[in-house]
Write a structure and sequence with these properties.
Radius of gyration: 27 Å
Number of strands: 12
Helix content: 40-55%
Strand order of the largest sheet: 4-3-9-5-6
Strand content: 5-15%
Number of helices: 17
Distance between the termini: 16 Å
Order of helices and strands: HHHHHEEEEHEEEEEEEEHHHHHHHHHHH
Length: about 500
């Protein structure tokens, strides 16, 4: 399966200069896939997975064809949702060790304990003056650094990938006569038995109106392995192609709270709950949340709801103008293939359309915005985006969900919205079907230019040649089985050339 997906991607890169020809190939592949016996037996499985060249090729084709639409229409509401999620999370306490927050949408990321905290209005020394920033007195030094760092670079408009790495900077509290270095871990950490508490803003008794400054941390190395100059100015440091996750713990601290550099168990807001189970694969804590905590989830949901609605409208409505020609073309193709193959059940055709674009493309980029946006995604943001993505997926489903007290909280949170989202998706499909057919000229003119895309076509061609050489016997048998004798002869000539000049050592 991996090889099939790789071949589909390599073909897309190699042929991206001729997207009209790519569209023709994609159409033929889908039509052939639909004729497979397992699809004829269970038509609802069509396009459900990405196990064939045709399915992966369709995903790649959509990536190219919807590029302009995402850039001009859908990208903005997705970015606004991401920013709203990040801002909402940061307004309340966030446990740096357990990745739990006061404001969350999922049970496993909800900070259940009541944490007393106070908002502090502080200032960051920057070139030309001071910049106001809001911190929480329960923030760790790493979290405070991240908020100060983000505020400054967001003001400058610097992309995340071009920012100085925050972990290469040292945070100083500026006093009237000297500066105090603030760290998550130093000789002042509070130790109680086996537990060592991570230092916070409150621990250092930071007051309202305090002034902070960044200097290069002489104990840190940048991503190229060079020591930073401790006397260098924050704004003159070389730009490093990474930033910092606001909930990423100090490298000296174990995220699971199971140990530290001194043998202690590190904790921030809460110590590990003995009744919780931690998944060692993704550090996720799974707990049952009583109904009393649903109010906190509802608070977060209410704050984000307008952004969730805006993104839904950009994906599942024609309110932004005409639908991208690629979507109309693909949906018409599915309607035609259903008619040609004697499929009249509207639910099956609806499922095909769900599988072809919403579930295959939109859900993927909504859950993984870092694929198209210059942002960083940490576990708390990922957990909220997962709930939103699941809600969109449920909106496409034709089945009616039976809600009860045993239903997951994420289902209960959006039960009311689903009553509006489901009809909206059906109307969206119906509206597209009612549009006039898209002409080849309109479709091809809507395809993006690949001139400025950094695509290594020669490398893709070479990798395709390696695959052709490795699978030459299977390919030749398939050509002969389909009575393609002339193509079989040409393919044999190509393989002989490849083995003689291009792949002399039988590269695999």
């Amino acid at each position: 399966m991996k090889d099939r997906c790789n071949v589909a991607s390599l073909l897309m890169v190699a042929l991206c200069g001729r997207l009209d020809y790519v569209t023709y190939i994609m159409t033929r592949l889908l039509c052939n896939l639909m004729k497979r016996p397992q699809i004829k037996t269970s038509p609802h499985l069509f396009l459900r997975r990405t196990e064939s060249v045709a399915e992966k090729f369709l995903s790649n084709w959509l990536t190219f064809c919807l590029y302009d639409y995402v850039k001009q229409v859908a990208g903005k509401p997705l970015f606004m949702l991401y920013r709203a999620i990040k801002a909402t999370i940061e307004t309340g306490p966030v446990d740096m060790v357990n990745y739990q927050a006061r404001y969350a949408l999922s049970e496993d990321r909800l900070l259940r304990e009541r944490i007393d905290f106070k908002t502090l209005n502080v200032f960051l020394q920057v070139e030309g003056g001071q910049m106001p920033v809001k911190l929480l007195d329960c923030d760790t030094i790493t979290q405070a650094k991240s908020k100060l760092h983000d505020t400054w670079y967001n003001y400058k408009g610097t992309p995340v990938s071009q920012r100085v790495a925050v972990d290469s900077l040292e945070l100083r509290l500026v006093g009237p006569h000297d500066q105090v270095c603030l760290r998550d871990e130093d000789e002042s950490n509070v130790i109680e038995g086996e537990w060592k508490r991570i230092n916070t803003i409150r621990h250092y008794k930071v007051a309202e109106g305090a002034i902070f400054a960044f200097v290069a941390d002489s104990t840190s190395t940048n991503r190229f392995g060079h020591l930073m100059d401790s006397n260098s100015n924050f704004n003159s440091n070389p730009k490093l192609n990474r930033s910092f996750d606001m909930t990423t713990s100090n490298p000296k601290l174990n995220r699971r709270g199971s140990g530290s550099s001194c043998g202690y168990r590190s904790w921030h807001l809460t110590k590990n709950n003995a009744n919780s189970t931690i998944d060692s694969a993704d550090n996720t804590t799974f707990v049952h949340v009583p109904e009393i905590y649903l109010t906190r989830l509802l608070t977060t949901k209410g704050t984000l709801q307008q952004f969730v609605n805006d993104l839904f409208v950009s994906v599942f409505s024609l309110s932004n103008g005409d639908v991208p020609p690629a979507i109309k073309f693909l949906f018409d193709l599915l309607d035609r293939q259903a008619a040609e193959n004697g499929i009249t059940d509207p639910d099956i055709i609806h499922t095909w359309k769900n599988n072809s674009i919403p579930l295959r493309y939109w859900i993927n980029i909504i859950k993984n915005p870092e694929m198209i946006l210059d942002v960083e995604k940490h576990p708390l943001i990922d957990s909220i985006l997962s709930v939103v993505s699941q809600t969109y997926m449920d909106s496409c489903s034709l089945s009616n969900h039976a809600f009860s007290t045993d239903s997951p909280s994420s289902k209960l949170l959006y039960a009311k919205e689903l009553q509006d989202y489901k009809p909206a998706v059906r109307k969206f499909y119906s509206d597209i079907q009612a549009l006039p057919p898209v002409t080849d000229e309109k479709l091809y003119s809507s395809l993006p230019s690949t001139e400025n895309m950094q695509l290594h076509r020669d490398a893709a061609l070479y990798d395709l040649a390696v695959y052709a050489n490795n699978y030459c016997y299977q390919i030749d048998e398939a050509l002969q089985r389909n009575n393609c004798d002339e193509l079989s002869k040409k393919f044999a000539t190509v393989i002989s050339y490849l083995q003689l000049y291009l792949i002399p050592n039988g590269t695999t």
